[in-house]
Amino acid sequence: TNGIVVDYYRSFYNIIYRANVVLENLKVASEENADQFEGEAKFVRAYAYFNLVRLFGDVPLIDRVIAPLDKDIQFTRVSTANVYQLIVSDLSSAANLLDDSYKNRASKSAAQALLAKVHLTLGNYSEAKSLCESVMGAGFSLEPNFKDVFYSEGNNEVIFAVGYESDNDNDSQNFSAEMLNAVGRTTGVNYVTDEAAVFLDENGGDRTAFSYRVDALQPQFYQVVKYLPNGDAALGIDPVSDDPTSCGNDWIVMRYADVLLMHVEAIMNSGSGESTTDAGALASFQAVRDRAGLTDPVASVTKQELLDERRAELAFENHRFFDLIRFGVANEVLGQYSADNGYSFSGTDLLLPIPQREINLSNGLLTQNPGY
């Protein structure tokens, strides 16, 4: 199995294990800290399971610390519906236990924003709308300058980010694969395709220059600009560290623009699902476009326009694939892209393979996804 796929699977289950350890040892925490620790543990467990269930489908559901011989729990795949029950429960609990004291740790608004996305995924649009509006009333705002979202850490648009520290072997991100595309000098999973570059040139507005650039040393390649550890003087981006392999760019998981666009999605899908003229939805949509310098008034928003806006606003932040699935167009869009570029595509490609090592260890309990 591809090494990156294996890393995803193992890393998310490692998060779940650590969260379960915390939850089973809350009794040793002080009363003033117990709620915070419980909320944080449930948030990260839900975050890990939300990624697992979207990437792999039915997965083992481990909601407590298990012994090495508990093979049935460790390797039995549980339906996505049951996994989502735990995700919703954990995030609801976290939202009640936490406040908004932190951006690099779980918070009330982070739990509400993630739960809103979960409900959008499940088709619970009224719940998603309500949660978005709770976050919209929590004091966050769009940064006036798009660049500052990524290069002014802890800004008022960030709801939750994984924090890193420059020049610290334990806390630097060392060229996270999610942040970079694969070019001759780096290995990453964030590709800037020719088609994506053309799309951003046509639809990105002020965001384009801070979304991708031509690689100066290898002009046949593009680079993601949102997380440049070594900076770009022409764009006014200072280096984050003297050593690009030990840099401190925070990885933004949830930000306010995403919540505004989820708000539009929830309202649209509460109606026809194809378009909306709702004043609240238009205000949220317009705010995101205004920040990008695209200030023409919007009288209605279609499903395709919303999907395009999410693509332009959140480019290279690891939302596009899940957006295509949630909007019900993944087979069409990815199939067309594959056909245009000489690749093969099947609907089974929308799930990653279960790592073969896990299947081997399960002694027949863990089954593989179709197509692999």
What would you note in describing this structure?
The protein contains 14 helices and 8 strands. The chain is mainly α and 372 residues long. Among the domains are: 1-98 and 343-372, Serine Threonine Protein Phosphatase 5, Tetratricopeptide repeat (Alpha Horseshoe), CATH 1.25.40.890; 164-249, no CATH class. The strands form 4 sheets. Strands 1-2 form a two-stranded antiparallel ribbon. Strands 3-6 form a two-stranded antiparallel sheet. Strands 4-5 form a two-stranded antiparallel sheet. Strand 4 (212-214) and strand 5 form a beta hairpin. Helix 1 (3-24) runs antiparallel to helix 2 (31-56), helix 5 (108-122) runs antiparallel to helix 6 (125-136) and helix 6 packs antiparallel against helix 9 (256-270). The termini are close together.
Could you tell me the number of beta strands?
A: 8
Helix content: 40-55%
Q: What name does CATH use for the topology of the domain at 1-98 and 343-372?
A: Serine Threonine Protein Phosphatase 5, Tetratricopeptide repeat
CATH architecture of the domain at 1-98 and 343-372: Alpha Horseshoe
Q: Tell me about the biggest sheet?
A: 2 strands, antiparallel
Task: Using the alpha-carbon principal axes, give the shape.
Answer: globular
Structure annotation, total helices:
14
Beta-strand content: 5-15%
How is the largest sheet built, in terms of strand order?
Answer: 1-2
Gyration radius, to the nearest Å? Answer: 21 Å
Could you write a compact summary of the structure shown?
This protein is mainly alpha-helical and about 375 residues long. Strands 1-2 form a two-stranded antiparallel ribbon. Strands 3-6 form a two-stranded antiparallel sheet. Strands 4-5 form a two-stranded antiparallel ribbon.
